[in-house]
Amino acid sequence: MSEWPVVNGFIGESGPFRAMLGLLARIACYDTSVLITGETGSGKEMAARAIHYQGRRRERPFIPVNCGALPDHLVENELFGHARGAYTDARDSQSGLIAQAEGGTLFLDEVDALTPKAQVSLLRFLQDGQYRRLGSSRTETADVRIVAACNSDLRQRVAREEFRSDLYYRLTAMDLHMPPLRLRGDDIVLLARHFIAEAASQYQLAVKELHPDTVGWLLAQAWPGNVRELQNRIQREFLLCDGPDVLVRDAISDGERHPPVDGRLACPTTLNFNEAKQQVLHDFERGQLLRLMSETAGNVSSAARLAGKERRALGKLLKKHGIEPEHFRRP
Fold this sequence. Notes:
alpha/beta; 13 strands
């Protein structure tokens, strides 16, 4: 039995993570289009696969495509296919990804990269399930669920007239946001231990524990690359580690050392004064608690003395921020 709570390949137990999983399960039940948003490396394709395999289309194909990796002139050809003679060298008719996904799910990653013309064609398909291959006058139909994803704010792109508003509203019949790793608390530690176990199995090495200083280091990072960045860093440190524990305390850039400023704080129309103040206090509290736990090796009484607070009051703050003292205790 796994040491970690695993649901559809996801690992975690934090509040934001559990809320996301709950919404994902409900979305999977309804056969409609979905827009998944979230930062790079936060698990958008994994969420799309979970939606597909929990839904009624699970026995049919799941076809992923990265729209940002397709040249502008090939997007429509990839999605809808082409008829014989549609362009030079088109000697045979060819089906597109929509036809290949018949009865299943087509996952459009980086959907914001679609050209204006491709947006129109996709909108038409979402409206009535009909499309035309390039160079063909014949209308074809397909029963396909569209799940799209992007890491940019599509609402802002709509406001700048860079993305069609009618397509945006079609895609967001359901929407799911993937929480960034830095807001998932101790999930970072669970994931790190999982990645160590994976690497140990892959390279036939003994599993190593995380050093308490590494736990503090993990929780203090911003992780702009999210789970993907964490996996790469942990695997590297595990493979290069000579000691009994995986120890990481430095060798990070200034940009990684401090979490990025919350984007909402830079926009006075989004947060009022009191909300901005509460956000700053929250970040300050969490940073101080992590420092205290690291310095005292998870000893709450010692940390309370250093902070000049009662042990019970400090314990409540640790619980509020989801910080587990035992993760910092040295063997």
